[in-house]
Amino acid sequence: MHGLSRITYTDLFWETLGELRGTPYYRQACEGIRACAVNKLTNRNFRSATDEPFTAQKELKGFWHARILGSPLRLLFYSIEGDTLQIGCVGDHSDYGWKGKHSGAAERLVNRIRNSVKKGHVPFPDWEPPRWSNPDQLLDHPDLALLGRSALVKLDGQLNGEWDDLAVFKRKHGDDAVNDVDLAMDWLERVAKVRDRLGFIIASRPILERTFKDATPSEAAMVNPSAEAIAGYAAFR
């Protein structure tokens, strides 16, 4: 079965997903969105008990919803246009008036999504860097694949500043901990590891910004492409 090759994000999607940032559920939500995209990459008609088209409300005809979180419940609202998965937003049952509740919600939801789609694809959100209290939190943080270049550079600046003043280290371990050379050096080595990872991502952003201007390849949904894929994008451009 033919799958979808492209994915588009709306500013509304980033706004509603952003409401989960800083919560214990954020990573799982991102993984759920990625899983939805991967399923559609293989089979555009893929459906399951947690990923299916709306059928009961005429206002929602043509839209799908996938459960990306069970508790608290969060749904991904999306549609399919040609070979493109159009991501609308993240919400819950109240956004479309589930079981007769919230009259008129479905129409409002559809209008919000359609208006947002008209604005065009937003490959990277205009977010601030994630908060962190340990460099290990950043190494595989979902935001590294999602943030725009300016936010990534700002995060790298924070890490660079940590080399100078160990401010986060002191808040976590106490001012006197700087006298523990082994502990401090281990911390800085982990900071350096994150900066190495960030350096690769920052360097690749201009290529991705150009390549993903109109749509993001489905295989790159919610993840940073591999070095090989990025080299392919650069060669193609």
Notes on the structure:
33% of the residues are buried. The protein has helices at residues 11-18, 26-42, 105-118, 136-139, 143-146, 149-165, 167-173, 181-211, 227-236, and strands spanning 6-8, 51-53, 63-70, 73-81, 84-91, 216-217. The chain is globular and about 65 Å long. It has 237 residues and is an alpha+beta fold. Strands 2-3-4-5-1-6 form a six-stranded mixed sheet, with helices on both faces. The chain contains nine helices and six strands. The model has no long low-confidence stretch (mean pLDDT 94).
List the topology elements.
Blueprint: E1 6-8, H1 11-18, H2 26-42, E2 51-53, E3 63-70, E4 73-81, E5 84-91, H3 105-118, H4 136-139, H5 143-146, H6 149-165, H7 167-173, H8 181-211, E6 216-217, H9 227-236
Parallel strand pairs: 1-5
Antiparallel strand pairs: 1-6, 2-3, 3-4, 4-5
